[in-house]
Design a protein that fits this description.
2 helices, single chain, mainly alpha
């Protein structure tokens, strides 16, 4: 009788090991799928971001060429595309890049206020 109990315990123990191995394999497969899904999603987001930045560059060209009369309209379009870029970036789950220091945006300004002052940036 003692031998039967030992054998039953060993069988249950082996069954548990088999179950855990199966669960670990399921977990690993799910992780591999998630990694592939994440990779696919991030590649899609990268493509979207590159397209949005291409649009932003075009808007920058329009901003540089805009007359006083058309400035507000072009600026509004630029703000919309930048909001789209920010939203696309947020979908990646990565922290958003920090904004550069505020620059003097008056016509003819070419330097940031901290440039040329000898201050470390």
């Amino acid at each position: 009788m003692e031998e039967q109990k030992k054998r039953a315990y060993q069988d249950r123990f082996k069954a548990r090991i088999d179950e855990w191995e199966a669960r670990i394999e399921q977990l690993a497969a799910r992780a591999r799928r998630a990694e592939a899904d994440l990779r696919t999603r991030l590649l899609s987001e990268e493509s979207d971001l590159r397209e949005k930045l291409k649009e932003a560059r075009a808007r920058l060209g329009e901003l540089m060429e805009a007359s006083e009369d058309g400035w507000d309209e072009v600026k509004a379009g630029a703000e919309r595309i930048w909001a789209d870029v920010s939203a696309a970036w947020a979908r990646t789950g990565e922290p958003e890049p920090t904004e550069p220091e505020a620059a003097d945006v008056s016509p003819g300004a070419t330097e940031r206020p901290s440039e040329g002052t000898g201050a470390a940036t």
